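INFO  loader      accepted 1 record
INFO  loader      residues=138
INFO  predictor   begin
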Amino acid sequence: MDNSIFRKKSLDRISSPEELSETLHVTSPAVWMILTAIILILAGVIIWGSIASIDSIVTGTAQVKDGSMHITYDDRQFAKDVEPGMKVTAGEHESRITSVGTDENGEPFAVASTTLADGSYAVKVVFRQTQVLRLLFN
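INFO  predictor   done
INFO  writer      dumping tokens
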């Protein structure tokens, strides 16, 4: 009786060098294409997330008279984050806030110089820009 636990045919196949020059196919080309696509998508999301930013804005109304824009805000909570030097946008027109303060009723306001015609305008002030990627890690 033979003490080998393997069949002779299997042992002969393993010991034969006839298939040493052939590559072993572990995965198909379709799997590599899917893996490449996933890596490219992830790389694109990471690049976009590090470049793109989300603006935090506070909206309000601006009264323009003689080149001076007096801004009152719709939300007092976010108005406290507005500081001089921040950008205020009225339609396509942009200006920089020159000063901030509170009126006699305790309502926050801001003042900016402008070239807009006298009147009332809807405005928005960007008080914070957050990178998308930082939202994931903070």
